[in-house]
Each structure stands twice: as structure tokens, then as C-alpha cells.
Amino acid sequence: MTHVPLLQVTGLNKRFGGLQATDRVDLQVAAGEIHALIGPNGAGKTTLVAQIAGQLASDSGTVHFDGSDITRMATHLRARRGLVRSFQVTRLFKSMTVLEHLALALQAAGGRTFSAWRPVRADTALFGRAEGLLARLGLADKSGWGIEQLSHGEQRALEVGMALAGSPKLVLLDEPLAGMGLQESEAMSSLIDGLRGEVAVLLIEHDVDAVFRLADTVSVLVNGHVVASGRPEDVRRDSAVVDAYLGTGQEAQ
Amino acid sequence: ADKVKIGFVSTLSGPSSALGVDIRDGFLLSVKLHGGKLGGLPAEVLVSDDQFKPEVARQLFERNVKRDHVDFMTGVVFSNIMLAALPEAIDNKTIYLSPNAAPSSMAGKDCNPLFFAVSWPNDAYHEAAGAFANQRGLKSVYLVAPNYQAGKDSLAGFKRTFKGQVIGENYTKLGQLDYAAELAEIRAAKPQVLYAFLPGGMGINFIKQFVGAGLGKETMLLLPGFSADQDVIGPVGPAMAGLFNTAHWSPDFANPANQRFVAEFQKEYKRMPTLYASQGYDTAELINAAVRDTKGKLEDQEAVRRALRSAKFDSVRGPFRFNKNQYPIQSYYVRTIGSDGKGGLVNKSFNEPILKDHGDAYVQQCMMPK
Amino acid sequence: MSGLLVFEQALNGFQLGFMLFLLAAGLTLVFGVMDMINLAHGSLYMVGAFLAAWLTRVSGSFLLGALGAVLLTALFGMLLESSLLRTLYARDHLSQVLATFALILILNDGVKMVFGNDLPLSVPAALDGPVQILPGLVYSSWRLLIIGVGLVIALLLYLLVQKTRIGALVRAGAANREMSSAMGVNVGRLFTLVFGLGAALCAVAGSLLGPLLAVQVGMGENILILAFVVVVIGGIGSIRGALIGALLVGTVDTLGRTLLQQLLRDALPPQWASAAGPALASISVYLLMVVMLVFRPQGLFPVRS
Amino acid sequence: MTAARAAAIGALLAALALPWALQAAGADFYLGVASRILIYAVAATSLNLLLGYGGMISLGHAAFFGLGAYASAILLSEGVRSAPVHLLVIAVAVGVVALAIGAVSLRTRGVYFIMITLAFAQMLFYLANSMKGYGGDEGLAVRTRVLLPGGFDLHQPATLYYCALAVLVLVMLLLHRFSGSRFGRAVQALRDDEVRAEAIGLPVFASKLVVFVVAGVLCGVAGGLSANLQGYVSPNLLHWTQSGTLLVMVILGGVGTLWGGVLGAVALLLMQELLSAHTEYHEFWIGWVLLAVVLFARHGLGGALASLAGRRTAR
Amino acid sequence: MLQVRGLCCGYGRSQVLFGMDLDIGPGEIVGLLGRNGMGKTTLVRSVMGLIRPTAGEIVFGGRPIGAMAPHRVARQGIALVPEGRQVFGNLSVLEHLTAFRRAGAGGAQPWTPERLFELFPRLAERRSHMGGQLSGGEQQMLAIARALVTNPQLLILDEATEGLAPLVREEVWKVLARVRQAGHAMLVIDKYVQRLIGVADRHVIIEKGRPVWSGTSQQLDADRGLWARYLGL
Ligand SMILES: Nc1ncnc2c1ncn2[C@@H]1O[C@H](COP(=O)(O)OP(=O)(O)OP(=O)(O)O)[C@@H](O)[C@H]1O
Ligand SMILES: Nc1ncnc2c1ncn2[C@@H]1O[C@H](COP(=O)(O)OP(=O)(O)OP(=O)(O)O)[C@@H](O)[C@H]1O
Ligand SMILES: [Mg+2]
Ligand SMILES: [Mg+2]
């Protein structure tokens, strides 16, 4: 792993009225690593993701990505630089087919948005890549479907696929396994696993088994603040983490 | 020609439609009384509604002129709508007889051989009102008019004859219906007389609210005739009694033409005629006279024009003639609203005109060929 | 400019504001709470006014006329809702725009067919005149009544929507109709009632404003736009917002027509003042809205996040 | 595709032949009506680009129509008749105003966007009303018309008709290509979900602004043509009810469908033309027709036609 | 208590359920299993009356409910924790719990907002927050609480533990056990099969819109072949 982290979050804050949603968050993600972020419900994970990805403006603190300060950068420019997120609540385009979603994500990553005359369909390379991705997501046979025809789990897969499409340097995955069946969870896990070394992942997930199986590093957010960070084995044994989040119950399938 | 074809475009729907409806009814009454003929030729009147929109009026003019090839156009109530549509008639050599709108521009530098104002020049009522205020020895006036050209013209007309002091002037939004704020200002200004040029529904509301605010005790309200006509008296009610206004016509005029008109109108439509109705009626009478005098040779437009200019017919307003700008020279009267003896209210005119054989201030600017 | 005049103008602003509130309240309920853009809201106001005028003539009593109008308009609104508008909730805003625009056309001409272009309606004789409210200030008693009625209705509505279970159920139905019904709420009937309430408020406004302004076809369209402005400034769906927004719009409009012109006359050469004054007065309300939306894009009291 | 293309070509041929047909039938007057329909088809299509493709419901679009019309009329009244100059002035004037309005308005969403565009348009409306130099509330009539290169005068009804037809064809071609292009896909995506579109790297604000300005300018061109057809402009052109009428045309014709704007303009204007000749209550019947379209043709006339042809619509 | 017989339904032209059968007795907890997209949610929705069956019948407490409007179904005593939470964005937490509260068949100890706040202290802290402002997990808790406050006879949980932190998830399982003791019947859809086995009495596996297996928790626990065949493990 490199020494300069790919993502460096320093002292990030966000208040909603009387509620400190994120509180002096420091966090580093190295290139290519899978970094899990766990914490109780309402700890501020999704808020943090929105701050890093740019949907929410931070009250204070900085975000550095790939060597530059992006704290105030527009969302789409962050995405163009390779910092992409997926959403905890699926957000898809109701007028597009499954394949078109991926093609669009690829197109967005490639820029040249304002080309208004040449049909995008003529770009066979783009659609070829989109189809490849489709297969990896296990949606190959749904290529022409509209999203309303997909089940919840399939929509989740597409949601994550959108984030991965443009070969980002870092993806922020907000509960990618939520709502998936066992098999699909398995498939998604291995998809994420396969990203290791290639794409850095900031993974938010309440499926603790998957987290500890996948993560290189685990950080724990409680009440908006990072209370522990380190190797999975260490974090798992951290009594504060057990009390605040994991509990002693056995999770198994 | 074997018949006379007339395009009648007016505002027949929406809040301002009462005026157009009256003009139409007056016009059609005349045609009916002539047995469906004008000047001996069967008359075909194509009535259409401009919906109070200049663009629509223009399209309707175009249709009447180009598609239906009418002999005369007439009907429009409002000057802004007429000015927008008029070029369609004039550019295509069709005579327009205005039953109401008579803007000062068309009286002066823009006067046109094909344009006749059968009503009264825009400023005339207001000049008469100014003269009346002088006669009564009133010294301070407050003026209210909507913020559009006719509104400005009218106040200019009043100021032309009025000798006292204008202590306030207020231009309201065209089509405004609530005048609470303006009335408060007027109350604070304490004028002796308030002159309000507010046509149609605007006037009705203004007067109602003037009364409701209790201003009538301190200030005399003076109005142009059309704001104190039958269509206003109805909605406002008894509060109108005793108000003064100025006009070129009154239902109580004793001339036989008028007696017949008022009686027939009431018989036909079950209501008292208004100024507008009288203007519509006179317009049809004028066409009747011109067609008769040219013996139906409508193809000779020059002859038709000459016949119109000499205007040989008995107008319900009494004697009148066209000025060289084809605007009327006529007398103006003060009217006051009183009981009709049947529980209603009606206008009654003073015997002596306040302005006699009065033309307009713009005729000098008109370069009309003979 | 004397203190009394300023006070009287403030009253005028409030009176206009409360009228706008009555219309905006129904609109904001239907719009914010049921998520339905109802362009025909102004037509209900027209229907209410016509019914009030007609019933007053038939019964000979303004009170009976107004009560009857409120009742009948509410019924008419409910009928409209349950026969037509309810099929539109599930549709996008644009379908609603088209359908309710069609309703405007139909109702305008329909009212004209039944009642004619306009109907007379006068302030009842008892409230016709002015009253002395301060030494040196007489004010139209009818306008005072309007302010009073507006105030009472504002209070009642606020309590109904914010503090009762019904209010919560209505808002829930608006946010997610399917889920509400799965929670056991008869959303259809609830919405019909809310719509009827909005229609009733329209009729109240129609009965009160009718005598002051005019009962005529097309009376709803211009005031509809103002009501929308109020709803947007106040924050869609918020009764409190509708009240504050309405008072704000009423005051700004009144000031624009009077104080502002006075100031301009003092500050600018006359021909400039007479050109700029009326133009500014006409746009003051829109200017207010633009400024508002730039700084608070969700209105004064946003309801949804 | 082929059926649609065949239909389009058929419509074009019919439109080309119309002036001859009308002349032969002695109904020249209706050429003006046809030109008006073409002009409103351009305006409605420009709104459809904004609304159907970009998801921006504007209730102020007529402001651009009016602006274009005033620009052309004022140039004519100043004696400028060259078509390129008119085009340039309209593009710049409308473009700049649209840019300014868009930059402010596009910070709001949904209903707030509807209302803020309405507010701007109403302000322009009152501004036009107080432009004393150019007619104020009475509007401005012009006697001359634009001269096209090659000496064609738009005063000639047929010339104006063909000019409007050419503009419409161009706009349709543009819209057709746009909808399948990279930009078109991006715009349609942000219509569905802006936050999502931005998160995958699409420049949402810039895209919307571009669409807003282009739609505004196209509508301005339609306005310019209208000034030349009518020989008259008035503030009414900018009134919100005009924007509402354009909106109704688009919804009636089919939001987000290629032909929506055209179909809506044709249907609404023809209905008005035909019904107003027969009944005082024409709006009553138009109302029922519109209602029927909402209830029974979900995607407007365009959608209904397409499903008659047994194909799926764009939406 | 609930009987589903030969149920067929779908969306538009695509059919999803092909003759689905299901029985839930009073106080019984049934787990519904199956891979993504097999029709679990569709079954739930048709029971709630949110989609109309094209064939088959649904009987609850002796009454056919297949043709009832959703609000009437709900009033028969069925409550739903829907997939994807669907809390009301413009209602406060407290309003969620007061507006839909019904006496129902709560037994000796009906659910009240106070008791639910005890159950989910996190919600008590957020009681005046709007639903839309809650975190995902908080919304999930609210969805469960909202269903319980109607004191239903049959509670349907469609992936009710999705997005919950492990501790809270444990808490929810415990709640379910308590609810069961109170005598409520339940239909539970969840991906944590092991947990489900601990809670439920019987299970039904659904594949392509048909029931393909049904049996007790012991049987399911013992037969890992089933897991591999139908659940993809
Ligand atoms: N727009 C908002 N306004 C007010 N409060 C908010 C808003 N968004 C989030 N919150 C609050 O901020 C806190 C953190 O929320 P966030 O969504 O970041 O939590 P989370 O860690 O993602 O939780 P979960 O695991 O349940 O998804 C929560 O208590 C939530 O109620
Ligand atoms: N609104 C809809 N329109 C069309 N098809 C739909 C719709 N909702 C679901 N489907 C289809 O119905 C099938 C069953 O969906 P359902 O949601 O019942 O599955 P599920 O078993 O609940 O899956 P999951 O575990 O992913 O929630 C899916 O294949 C899906 O494509
Ligand atoms: Mg979260
Ligand atoms: Mg499901």
C-alpha cells in the first residue's frame, strides 16, 4: 500500500440543526484497499459519504483526494476524477433500460457530454463495455428491461454497477448488500472482493460477516466520530466497538 | 352590390364583455328595425369575439377582410385592440367605422380616410367634465385613471379645461379590481372633487368601494358618462343616485329617433340601453344612410366615403356632423342620476349642453385629403 | 405621509392578505398535502361567488346565500374530486396541469351558460357603510369583517392540520398513498374531504370578495396566480406559511401601489416616476417571490425535506 | 422506425404542397392559419425540449417568444430588414436573457422552478407594457417585413409559410438527433434523477442551463416569425396565459415525444379555428377534448398515435 | 388465520405468482424464503390488497379479502413493514406512532407509543424529527414501530432487518420473539435464514412464484441441500 492515502478526510463536520451528524471525522483510504466503515444506525455514515462525494457541503474540515483538495469541488467533477458513490436508497433512471444505465455511467466518466448530434448508440465500444459489466453484475439477461421490472435485489446490483462503471479510483458503497438474497450477496461480495488492488472501496455495510471477510481496514463511527480504526481482527475485539455496535450475538446464515 | 357585408369584431366574452355586447345589440337592433336590410340591401353581419386580445382581433379582421371580403368593418370597444387590428382593414382598403374607440392619435397625425369615429373623441367627456367642475366653482381635484394610453389621454383632456388645482394623480393597474389603497390616499389628500376615468368593471368596483369607504361625504365624485351608465348603475345600486357625469347622449333626449331607439331597445332586450348601445345603433344607422345615398354601389369606395362624411341621418344624439378628420362635432351634456319612477335609477340630462358643437384638439394635425 | 394613512394602508394590506390566504390555504392543502396541482382552484372561487350571488338573490339574505354557497361549493368540489381529480393523483404534475386547465375552460363557459357573464352581489346593507375605528379614521366595515373572518379561519386551519390526527393522516396520504392505505387509512375519502374543505374556503373567499369586487366569469384566473405566489413564498403545504405569505404579498402589493409610488415621485423626475412607478407596482409581488426563492428556495416554512 | 420515417416524410410532402392546394381551392386565407400553426409548432417543440427532455417545467416560456417577436418588430420599425441580422439579434438578445433567467431559476426545483420562471416572465410582461417608446400596452405594429437572402420578402404569405416550415423541419431534425446523442441521454437522465446523474459525473447544472438557453432561443425565433406573420406585437405575447397555452400544447401533443409539440400545436389551434367559428362556447368543448386526452391518452396525442402504431413511446 | 389458495397475479402483462399457496395459523410464525425476484414481495402486496389477484383466493380470519381495498384489509388486523421502509417523510416520528395507532388485538399489553419508545430508545431521541430526516436504520425501526402500534393480528415483515446495525438487529429478533409470545401471527421475509429458523415455526420456500417446499424449522435446518437448491448457498 502506498504512503500517501488516496482519500484523506480531516476534521470533517456537519450539523443538522441541533444535531452534530459528523463530528471531526478523520479518515484515510489507501489506493486499492477495501476500507469498511461501520457504526450504529444514525452514526453519520451516510452523511459522511455525502460529504465526501459532494452532495452535502461540509461545515468545516477538508477532503483531499488523489493529491488535491476537493472540499469545495462540484459533485460531478469529483466523479470525473474517479470518486464515485452508490446510494443507500436505490436511485435509478425510470426512463432507461438496464443496459442504458451502465452505458450512461460509462459515458459520463468519459466526458464529452455536450455532443448533441452523433447518436450514442453508434458508439459500439461503449456499449460493448457496458454489456461486459452487465455480465459481471449477473444482469446479462435483463439488458433491455426497464428498472420497474427489476426486483429490489436486482436494482441494488445495478445501483452498485453504476458506481463501478466508469473505472473509478475510489467507490463509496453505501450498504451494497442490503436487500440482497444470499446468492446475490455472495455474488456482490465477490464482485467487491475482485476490486481489491484495482479500485479502492469505502464500504458501509451492516452485514458484519461480509465486512470482516472483505475489509483490509475497518473504521468505526459512533455519534459522528471515528472511535476506532485498524485491522479487522483488532477492531472486532475492541470492547468499545462490541458495546456500541456489534453486540455479542452470533451472526450466521 | 347585391348585399352589404359587415364584419363586426368586439369583446363579447370575459369581464369586459358588457360593453361589446351592448354595441352589438344596438347595431343589430337597427338592422332589425330596417327589416334586415341596410340602405335597401340585405345586410349580412359577421359577428365575432376578440376575447379582449389584440392578436385575436387582428386575426379576425384578417379573416373578415381577406376571406369574407366585407364592405365595412366595425365593432371594437377598446382603443388598444382597435389600433392593433385596424391596419388589417386599412391596408386592405376596407372602411372601418368605430362605434366607440376614438383615440387622439387617429384624430390627429394618424388620421385616415378609411377611418370614421361614430362615437366621440377620446378627450371630449373629460373636457366636458373639466368645464363642469369650473362651472361649479370647484378648486381642487384628484385624478384616477388606469395606466394605459386612453387613461393618460383622458386626464390630459380634463386638465385642458379645468382651471383649478390638480392635487393628486394616480395611475392604477389596468384591470385592477381593488382600490382600497388608492382610496386611502385620496382620503388623505382631501380633494373637493374626484374625477375617475375607469371604464367597465374597474369603474363599478371603484365606485362601490368609494361609497363603502365613506368618502362620498367629503368628496364629490365626478365621472365620465360611461362610468355612470346603466351597466354601472345596476351593480352599484342606490349609491349612484345624485352623481354627475358627462356624455354626448342620454336616454331622455327628446328627439324622435332617440325615443324610438330607447323604446325598441327596451322592448327587444328588456333593459335600458347604454351609451354603447346608442353608439352601435348610430353606426348601423350611418351605414344605412351611406348605402342608401350611394344607391347600393358599394364598389365605388370614394362615393361611399363621401356619403359617410356627409352623414345624412337622424342620430339618436341629436344633430352631429363629421369634422375634417372624420371625428364628430357635437354637443356634450352633464347628466345626473335620478329615479326612473319605477324604483330604479336612470340618467337625466341638463337641458343646456356644457360644451356646444365641440370638436377635438387634434384636428389641426390631421392632413386628410378631401 | 401621516401615521393614520400608514395604518389604513396596513389594514388594506392585511385585508388583501387574508383574502389571499383563504384561497391559498385550500390551494396549499391540495397542492402541498395531496401533491396535486389544481389550476381549477380559481374556478371553484368563481363557482362559490356565483352561487353566493344567485342564492342571495333567491333567498333574499346574504347570510343564507353565503352559507349555501359554501355548502354547495364544498359538495361540488367533492364531486369533482371523486369523479375526476382522484384519477390524477397517481399521475405526474403535467397531467394534472392539463386536466385542471381543461376544467377552467369548462367551468368558465359552463358558469356562463348557467348564470350569464356576471351576477350582481352587494354588501348587505348593515355592513355597507364605513365605521369609525380610530379617532380620525373611518374604515369600510366590510373589509374589517374580511380581516376578522380570515383570522378565525387561519387559526382553525392551523390547529386542524398541525395538531390533529386527521392532519397527520392527510399528510401521510400525500407522502405515500399506497403505504397509508396499507396502514389502514381510507385515503380516498380523506382526500375527498380535504378537497371539499379547500372548495369551501374558496366559496368563503368568493362570498366575501364578490360584493367588493365583482362576480364575473374569469374572476378566478388572476387571483389564482397570486394565490400560487403566496403558496410558494410560504412553503408548499404549510398553513402557517400560507398565512404569512399572504400577509406579505398583500402588504407588498399595497405598499407598491402607494408608498413606493410616493417615494419615487419624491426621488425621481416626474416623467420617470410616472413610468417606473406603475411598472414597479405591478411587478413588486413577483420580485418578492424571486428574491424569496433565491434565498430560500423552499419557501418560508418548508414542509418537505 | 421506417413507418415513423414514412409518416414524417408524408407529412413534409403534404406541408410542401399545401400552398398550391389552398390556392387551387381558393382558400388563400388559410395559409396564414397554417403559418401560425407552424410557428406555434416550433415554439411548442422548443418547450418540449425543455420540459419533456429536460424535465424543466417552465411557466414562463412565452417570455422568449415575446422577446423574439419584439426584437424582430423593433428592428423592422427601425428599418432593419436583413434576415441574418434579425436572427443574430434574436439569438443574442434571447440568449442573454435566457442565460440570466436560467442561471437564477435553475437553482430551484419542481414547483418552485415553475413559479420562478412565471415570475420572471411576468416581470418582462410588465416591462413590455411600460416600454412607451415601442407601443407600451398598445403594442407595436410594423408595416415592413424581413427580407430573406435572395430577395424573398416575408410579406409574401407563401414565403413566410415556407420559411416557417424550414425552421420547423430544422428544429425537428435537431431534436431527433439530440434525443439519441450523448447530450440527449445525459439530459434525459438528469430529468429522471438529478442527484444520481451528478453522482456519476454528469454536469447537471451546465446541461440544464444549455438546454434552457437553446430552448429559449428557438422559441425566440418562433416569436420573430410570428411578428412577421402578424405585423404586430404586444405585451400579451409574454403573458403567463401564453406560456400556459404552450404548456397545454406540449402536454396535449405528448411530453417528451418527438412529435409532441407539433401535434399539440396543430390540434389546439385547429380546434380553436374550427370551433370558434361555430359556437360562442368553443372553450367549453375544447376543455372536454383536453380532458378526454388526459384521461384516455396517457402520453398525449403522440403517445396515442404511437400505441395505435403498436410501438412503445420514448417515455 | 390466513389462507392463500392458488394465487396468481403480476404486473401488467408479466405474471409473477403462479398458483401460490400459503397458510398461517393463529399465533404462528412463518418464514418466507426464496431468492431475489421470486415473488415474495408480490405475495405480500397482494395479501395487503395493493395488487389485485388474477386468480385464487385469500382468506383472513374466515373472510375473503382478495378483493378488498388495502385500508380495509389493514383494518381486518394485518400490518405491514414494507420492503424499503417507506416511512412518511413529512410526519414526525411521534406522529407516525400516534396517527396510525389502533386498539386492535393487542391482548393484555397493547403496543403504545411509550412502549415502542422503550423498545427503540433511538426513536425516542428523535421523536420530533421528520421521517425523511432519519438515517436508514432509524427509518427501519420506525417502520416496525409503526406497524406494531396498529396492534395487528398478523404482522408481515418484508426484509425488516435490512440496514439495521447488528445490535439493533438482535434487538428486533428479540422483539419478534416477544411479539410472538403476545400471540400475534407473523409472516417474516428475511435473508438471515439462520435467525429466521430460530424464530419461526414453519417455512415456505418460493421459487418462480410457486411454493416449492414447506416444512418446520427443524426440517429446514437439517436439509442443507434445500439451501443450496433454492437459496443459492
Ligand atoms: N437532512 C437531515 N436533516 C436532519 N437530520 C438529518 C438529516 N440527514 C440525516 N440526519 C440525521 O443525522 C444522523 C446521521 O444520519 P446518517 O444517515 O448519516 O446515518 P447512518 O450512519 O448512515 O445510519 P444508517 O446506518 O442507519 O444508515 C441521523 O440521526 C439522522 O437522523
Ligand atoms: N412494479 C413492477 N412491475 C413489473 N414487474 C415487477 C414489479 N415489481 C416486481 N416485478 C417483478 O416481479 C418479480 C418478483 O418481484 P418481487 O419483488 O416479488 O420479488 P422478491 O421475491 O420480493 O425479491 P427480493 O428478494 O429482491 O425483494 C421480479 O422478477 C420483478 O422483476
Ligand atoms: Mg446510512
Ligand atoms: Mg422483495
TrEMBL record, chain A:
InterPro entries: AAA+_ATPase (IPR003593), ABC_AA/LPS_Transport (IPR051120), ABC_transporter-like_ATP-bd (IPR003439), ABC_transporter-like_CS (IPR017871), BCA_ABC_TP_C (IPR032823), P-loop_NTPase (IPR027417). Residues 7-248 form the ABC transporter domain. The keyword Lipid metabolism does not apply. Keywords: ATP-binding, Cell membrane, Membrane, Nucleotide-binding, Transport. One of its GO terms (molecular function) is ATP binding. It comes from the Bacteria. Pfam families: ABC_tran, BCA_ABC_TP_C. Signal peptide: none annotated. The keyword Membrane applies. Transmembrane segments: none annotated. This is ABC transporter ATP-binding protein. It comes from Caenimonas terrae.
From TrEMBL, chain C:
Its main location: membrane. Coiled coil: none annotated. It is found in: Cell membrane. Keywords: Amino-acid transport, Cell membrane, Membrane, Transmembrane, Transmembrane helix, Transport. It comes from the Bacteria. CDD domains: TM_PBP1_LivH_like. The chain crosses the membrane at residues 12-32, 39-56, 62-85, 97-115, 142-161, 190-217, 223-251, 272-295. Pfam families: BPD_transp_2. It is a multi-pass membrane protein. Belongs to the binding-protein-dependent transport system permease family. LivHM subfamily. This is Branched-chain amino acid ABC transporter permease. It comes from Caenimonas terrae. The lineage of its organism: Bacteria, Pseudomonadati, Pseudomonadota, Betaproteobacteria, Burkholderiales.
Automatic annotation (TrEMBL), chain D:
InterPro entries: ABC_transp_permease (IPR001851), LivM-like (IPR043428). The keyword Transmembrane helix applies. It is found in: Cell membrane. The keyword Cell membrane applies. Keywords: Cell membrane, Membrane, Transmembrane, Transmembrane helix. It comes from the Bacteria. It is a multi-pass membrane protein. The chain crosses the membrane at residues 34-51, 58-77, 83-104, 111-128, 159-178, 199-226, 246-271, 283-301. Its main location: membrane. This is Branched-chain amino acid ABC transporter permease. It comes from Caenimonas terrae.
From TrEMBL, chain E:
It comes from the Bacteria. One of its GO terms (molecular function) is ATP binding. Residues 2-233 form the ABC transporter domain. Keywords: Amino-acid transport, ATP-binding, Cell membrane, Membrane, Nucleotide-binding, Transport. SMART domains: AAA. Belongs to the ABC transporter superfamily. This is ABC transporter ATP-binding protein. It comes from Caenimonas terrae.
